[in-house]
Each structure stands twice: as C-alpha cells, then as structure tokens.
What we know:
This protein is of the alpha/beta class.
Amino acid sequence: MTLNLAKVSETYFSKLFNSQRDGSNGSTKAKVLLVDRYTTPVISMSYTQSQLLQHDIILIELIENQHDLNVMKHLNCIVYVKPTKESIQHLTNELKNPHFNSYQLFLNNTINKNQLEKLAEADEFETIQSVIELFQDYVIVNQNLFITQKVDPPIEISKSTDSIVEESNSIISLLLSLKKCPIIKYEQNSIGLKRLSSEILYNINSNSNNNLFDDLNQKSDTAPILLLLDRKNDPITPIITPWTYQSMINELIGIKKNIVNLVESNESVTLSDTQDKFYRESLYLNYGDLTEKFQKYVEQYKSQTKQSWGENLNSQNLSELKKILTKFPEYKKLSANILKHLNLISKLDTEISKRNLWDIGELQQTIICDLDNQQALKIRLLELFDQPNIPTDEKLKLVILYSVRFPNANEITTFIAKLNDPSKSNPVLTVTQNALIKKFKSIVGPNIRSGTSNAAKNGNIGNIFNKKININNLFNNIGHNNPKTDNIYMQYVPRLNDTLEYLLAPTSLQENVHSINLSTLVPDVVSKQYGLKAQNEPVQDIIVYIKGGVTYEEARLVHELSEANPKINLIIGGDNLINSAEWLDSLYDAINESNETNIDGTRTERRAQLRDIL
C-alpha cells in the first residue's frame, strides 16, 4: 500500500458517510453529523458543505452543544468524535437523552474498555447501532503531509508526560490508518524524541496484544521506518524565505486549516489540493514558473469562453445552445478560481516588494550556502541594516543566519547595534530578540549546519548580483529529480535531505555520518516478522515526523524525493505546521522560559544561602 493520505481519508469517509441505508431497497436517508472540536478540522479540510450534502448530511452540530439540540426523531445520527474524556462525557449525556432516532458511533482513535462500558450504560434507549474505530486522529493537509492533533491542556493535560501520550496516540492512529508497523528511528540528542519513541514502542507492543498491529506489514518486503526528528536540530529551514507557491502563501499571508484570510479584501479563500486542479499542479512551483502557469491558465479560460460564446450563442441549433448553457456553472466556477489565485498571487507580489524579499532572499541563500566571503557579506549586511524600510524581523533572520555561518564574528555586535538604532530600524529589537541572537545556539542545540547547495558545482554565484537581471530568469533549471538546483533563490536544501539520503543509501553519505546520529527501536511484531535483518534491509516506506513543527518546504522536498524514487514511499508530518514568524515566536518563548528558570534558580539559591546564614 502506498503512503497516500488522500486515499486513507477517502476510504474512511466512505465508511463514515455511506454506512447508513434506509430500508431494504438501500436508499439513503437524511442524516445528522455530530462532531467535536478535534474531528471538525479533520472533516472540514477534506469535505465542503456541498459534498456533505451529497452524502445526505443535512445538519452538522458540535457534540458539546448537545443540550441545545432540537429533538428530531425522524433523523438518524452519525457521531464522529475523538475518544477523549470530554467528548465521551458529552456523548453519554446525549445517549441518556437522545435527540435522534439512532446513532452510529465512529471514533477517530482507539477506545478503551472503560469508555465502551460507559457508553453501553448510557444507552438506556438502545439507540446505538454500531461502534467503529476510524484511525484518523490527525489532520491531512496534502496527500503527503499531516499534522497531529493536540488536546488543550486545561481540559485533558496536566503534565508533560500526558502530552507525550497524546502525541503518541495520534501517531499510532496514523500508523494504523496506513496499515504500517514500523521500525522507529529518532535523533539521539533529543530527550523529547527519546520519550516519544519509547511511548510509541510501548503503544505498539501493547496494541499487538489486541491484534491491531498484527499482519500490517504482510505486503511489505522490508519494514517501514518511522523517522522522528527534532526541529531544534534544524532551526534554519523555517527561517529561510521560501519561493514555491504553497510555502510562500503560508510564509507571507498564512494558511490555517487550508483557509487563507486576505485582510485587505476582507475575504477568506479555501485551498485544497484535492478539489482545485490548478492549486494541486502549482503547489511546488517556484514563483517564476507559477506566474507563467497562471498566465496560461487565464489564456485557456479566455480561449474556452470565447469559442463557446462566439460560435454557439449565435447558433439556431437548440442542442448547441443547451450545451453551452449547461457549461455556465463550469465557467463560473473556473472564473472564481482564477480570481482566487489572482488575488493570492497579487498579494504575494505585494508582500515580496514590501519586505524587499528579492534582495533579502538572495542574501539569505548567499550567507547560509557559503556563496560569498565574510568581508563581502559584512559590507552588504551593513548597507541593508542602514535601511529603515526593511522589516526588523527580516534583519533579525539575517543576523541569525550570519551568526550560524560565522559564529565568532566580531561584527555581530555592530549588527545588533544597528538593529537597536531607531533611525535605522523601526521598530528596534525587543529584549527577547536581542537575547535570541546571543543565545540562539544554546537554545536550539549544537547540531546546526550551514545549508547544502550546488555552490561547488556552480561556482560562486554571489557576485552576479552586481549585474541587472531579469527576475523571471532567476528561476531556471529547476531539477524535479534533485532538490539541489541552479535556482539562485532555492540553493538551500533542508537538513532532512541528508537524513533521508542516509536512510535510502547509507554509503553515499559517509562524510556526514557524524551529524546523523539515529537511535533505533524495533517493535516485537517487527522483530518476529523480519528477524535480525529488519534494520539492514533497503527502505521502501518512510514516515517522517518533526517534533517542533514541519514546514511546507520540507513537504516539497519529500514530494521531489518521491518523484525521483518511484519505489520509495514518503510522507511527512509534525505537531505543527510553521512559518518563520511562528518559529521565531517559539524561540522567543524558549528564551523567556529560560530566563524565568534562571530567575527561579537564583531565588532558590539565594534562599538556601539565607538559611545557611541564619
């Protein structure tokens, strides 16, 4: 089975929506769908309201609002919830006082015996028809990209260990939905990953007793791999300005649950790679190729409508007129989609100009990919930092990248001074931002490396920017089979590429083995099936999970590696989907937490000293 999340979703929703038939003739009956706040995004990111109507779902309600529902005994109810303590309690309340004729219960993860008994006791009116586990305790973003779901701390989580259990449960549901029981590999230096991997291993071995993981790998010649990575081991990728369509939208505008809010026009647009062909085909296109494809898209629309209007509206043939009239909705939909992407691309263009990203993006690549010498970079940065129109956040990212490339450079102090000068930066750096520059390596850890690039092959390309260049020509020679390209703005390759190459072909990266330190855990069922050879066989299926947040650029990398290696199945996910602003916010939080810890530690030490004195 290929690792295609869209197919998993399609299979599960087919079970969910086509489960109920009315009468012996198999006809459908209108239904109500009860969801909770965890399953709502699972459905909303896969289905539109019109699609739900096609499945006879005429009403959707949150189960936490069950006490406000009207009694509608003529309707049957489908319940689709996450089996949390909160949702199970709401469900038992509904069963004790049912508003609908019958209930089919679907849980998006495993339900335990105590919860089942609680539901059975509440079902006094015997309205439950079935209880089915659908393992989708995660959100599908693209067909190769997923995000795990978090339970809000005030309701479910009181300790960090509980959050690890919830994270593990979400990943377990992913494995069960993909029908994979993997070898677990995680980065050795991450305490969080060590705890998470141990919990996943325990969960798999425990569920093997319930036969959940038995026979999952029967169609696989080699064991799948679950690769757990820590965002702190690659803090650079989220900082680098992306130049492909989906990544740019998230970076410059923001995507939340596939919704993009265009503030200027007070408009919200939905992005879906399953429902929008242009978007699906443009996800990973660089900005130059994107604008060219969009122009062709518009020309195609003009050609279709012109031909139809010109030839057919003057026709006296009723069948021809009928044919063109039936195309009106199709053309209207196409026109709306063109307008949507026109607004998005226009907004991207505005943001690129406003943030000076043509200059900044090239400079980021030049710094982190070692494309120019230190003195030349210093001069360019000093000139740029004198410009108050450059956003402070963009300047901050450049200083961080420079400090990674040249960790002992004296000029970093000069850079910080310019970013704290009101005449050169508006606003100036905050206290936390100043601290982040100084403590960046201590916050994210020591395993930072500069970017991988084609610099050695292409020669030093930094100096060509002294010449006038057509922007469209900057995006050229995109290699679909190789993440490393001649594209000036896309020289940087995420650290994930090295790790995946190491797993796929260990001998090809011997020089980088020292920076790729993975520990391995093998579930009992995998050991029994594959024996000692489990860890040494060629890899076919890899599920990547990044704790601390995954980026759209890493999803693009996974897509390109999959395209280049048809025999390899790759998907990627994380506990969050981040852009540079969100990643910096998490680093600010880490700085503030470390400061609070230091203050508390100093207070404790001072109290101990006072006790000794007294």
